[in-house]
Amino acid sequence: MNIQALDIKVGDRIIAYCKNKMQPCTVQRLLDSTNTNITLKVSTGVPYRESASCVVQFHREALVEIAGLKSRIQTGQ
């Protein structure tokens, strides 16, 4: 399932490019929101552990995949 980047909230689990690969991440904090981009701090492991965190940026209109939910294409529905 996808949501618009503008609708992402702290605590959401999303798929993001972090630590050189696409992986599930938990949104820790909204760092910046401009007219064109949203910048988030995310964690790949234990929530709020600095060594497992990354900063990711999305266009406000971008669709972001929610982690843990398979798309209809993956499940064959």
- Most strands sheet: 4 strands, antiparallel
- Domains (count): 1
Order of strands side by side in the largest beta sheet? 2-3-4-5
- Helix/strand/pairing category: mainly beta
Total helical segments: 1
CATH topology: SH3 type barrels
Low-pLDDT sequence parts: 71-77
Large-scale geometry: globular
Please count the beta strands (DSSP E, at least 2 residues each): 6
How large is the radius of gyration? 12 Å
- Per DSSP, what share of the residues sits in E-state strands of 2 or more residues? over 45%
Terminal CA distance reads 13 Å
- Helix content, binned percent: under 10%
Order of helices and strands: EEEEEEH
Averaging pLDDT over every residue, what do you get?
A: 85
Write down the CATH class: Mainly Beta
Explain how this protein is built.
The protein is mainly beta and 77 residues long. The protein has a single domain, classed as SH3 type barrels, CATH 2.30.30. 5% of the residues lie in helices and 51% in strands. Strand 3 and strand 4 form a beta hairpin. The two termini are 13 Å apart.
Provide key terms for this protein.
single chain, 77 residues, mainly beta, SH3 type barrels, four-stranded antiparallel beta sheet, two-stranded antiparallel sheet, globular, disordered C terminus
